[in-house]
Specification:
Number of helices: 17
Strand content: 15-25%
Radius of gyration: 26 Å
Helix content: 40-55%
Distance between the termini: 42 Å
Order of helices and strands: HHEHEEHHHHHHEHHEHEEHEHHEHEEHE
Mean pLDDT: 75
Structural class: alpha+beta
Length: 501
């Protein structure tokens, strides 16, 4: 799946360290200790008689080729994650092993990059830091303070930034530059996307169906939220609850009452009727789940999104209105062109929205962020405060100066959780607090409009989606090859370092 980002991401203080931002602690902790293809390159503690001396003197957790990783590095990584508010598994040993495995992979990449002559000079690093500071509209002193508050020294931050840049350049050369995409692949991707949407042109307010208008779908959902970083137990529990509700919904029960009862029993569960929406205004996951079912029917399966699990029911489907006279006169030629394979512009809905962002950071829990944003929402709804003024005062990204305005955005230009929440809003409506990878958001939709996605843009988007999919697979394969080819000797990872703080 293509991972889209919020457009103004360049004005956010980036989480530079890929080892921190991309570390799936719970998943890694569960898989640590399983066999690897390169097990022959890993020596156990019992195979080396001098290991205890190494551990006692140097605090070494693992030797990686000609380098090493210390137990203090593991401690520091855990401390930083804790200060950033990350949810960590309770199994400390598994956690330390998962972090060690991540550090090993990073170490191997850096060793290979250095061997191939990839470097970042002090002058270049200073320029990059200055650029980050400038884009975030802060001073160097303020930026240093934020780094220190995140749980590390400024020098350590610079070291990690340098390492990330080196790994990124090495990855670009070894993986990204070798990805090739043919014109035929782009054609096939566009064809599949069109077929998935039920035709060559996705229905919009400017394209009419044969029965006299755009189809509108009225969907209700029961939503069981679960954090994307939650452990396997929490994920399984939420999925089990969703599947139980889906089973009940298929029986002789009123879906609306079922949703209300579920929400009453557990306040975290949300029940919502989305109202009549054209397919382009539905989250893509929802549309795909209900595309082939009729009114009064429940979706065949529970829908999993980054925010949790959704039980969906189509309450009704209807034609949204009569076609315009000029559309009726040109409908046949358009169909003929589609059948013949001629390029077609696709009409899309663009949304103008604004938001208030509270970023993930040490000292601000999810509960505190959600409570603060709920308070701002209450003020806006009660008309005792203006959304734009609150954004200027409290939003923690570069859009704050413009009242949180994000500009016109089309499908796929925002992270999924944000886009799905935004698409559910009517014009002028303010969302409940929404969690994404950037933090917590309050969203308000200002306006919507129809725009055409040209064939050139379609091909650009298709190429980007194909490249992302190919990269994800190639990158994981490449990492496995690097890991398998490395000589790794695990020493003592379970114990924390002593006397090193």
């Amino acid at each position: 799946m293509t991972h889209h980002r919020i457009k103004p991401k360049h004005v956010l203080i980036a989480t530079i360290f890929s080892g921190l931002a991309l570390l799936s602690i719970a998943s890694d902790a569960q898989t640590t200790g399983t066999s690897k293809k390169g097990a022959s390159n890993v020596e156990s503690p019992s195979s080396v008689s001098s290991d205890s001396k190494v551990r006692d003197i140097d605090g070494v957790a693992a030797v990686v080729n000609t380098g090493f990783i210390t137990r203090k590095e593991i401690d520091d990584r855990i401390l930083t994650l804790q200060k950033q508010g990350a949810k960590l598994p309770s199994d400390v040993v598994a956690l330390r092993k998962a972090i060690l495995e991540r550090l090993i992979i990073e170490k191997v990449q850096l060793q290979e990059a250095e061997q191939d002559g990839i470097t970042v000079s002090e002058k270049e690093l200073t320029r990059i830091v200055d650029d980050i500071v400038t884009r975030n509209k802060t001073t160097l002193a303020e930026f240093k303070a934020k780094v220190i508050a995140s749980g590390m020294s400024y020098e350590r931050y610079k070291d990690m930034l340098r390492n990330d840049i080196m790994m990124s350049r090495y990855r670009e050369r070894e993986v990204e530059s070798k990805i090739k995409i043919s014109e035929a692949e782009i054609d096939n991707f566009i064809t599949e996307q069109s077929r998935a949407r039920g035709g060559a042109v996705r229905p919009t307010a400017n394209t009419s169906s044969a029965v006299g208008g755009v189809e509108e779908i009225d969907i209700a959902q029961i939503f069981i939220p679960v954090d994307a970083n939650a452990g396997a137990g929490a994920q399984a529990e939420a999925k089990k609850k969703a599947e139980s509700l889906l089973k009940d919904a298929r029986g002789d029960v009123d879906f609306l009452k079922l949703g209300e009862m579920a929400a009453k029993e557990n306040p975290k569960i949300k029940f919502q009727e989305l109202g009549y929406r054209t397919p382009d205004r539905l989250p893509q996951l929802f549309y795909e789940a209900v595309r082939n079912i009729g009114g009064g029917q429940v979706a065949n399966n529970v829908v999993k999104s980054p925010a949790g699990f959704h039980v969906l029911k189509v309450l009704d489907r209807r034609s949204g209105g009569s076609p315009q006279p000029q559309q009726a006169s040109t409908q046949a030629p358009a169909q003929e062109a589609t059948t013949s394979g001629a390029p077609q512009n696709i009409a899309i809905t663009q949304t103008l929205s604004r938001h208030i962002l509270l970023k993930n950071r040490a000292g601000l829990s999810d509960q505190d962020a959600e409570r603060r944003l709920a308070g701002y929402r209450a003020q806006v709804v009660a008309k005792t405060a203006d959304f734009g003024e609150l954004a200027k005062k409290y939003s923690e990204d570069g859009s704050a100066a413009n009242g949180g305005n994000l500009g016109w955005m089309g499908p796929g230009e925002l992270v999924p959780e944000f886009e799905q929440a935004m698409n559910r809003l009517q014009i002028g409506e303010v969302s409940p607090p929404v969690k994404t990878e950037f933090g917590w958001h309050l969203i308000q939709v200002l306006e919507r409009r129809q725009a055409e996605l040209t064939t050139e843009k379609q091909r650009e988007f298709a190429k980007a989606a194909i490249r992302q999919k190919k990269f994800e697979q190639a990158y994981q394969d490449w990492l496995r090859q690097l890991r398998d080819s490395a000589t790794v000797k695990i020493l003592n990872v379970e114990d924390a370092a002593t006397g090193n703080r």
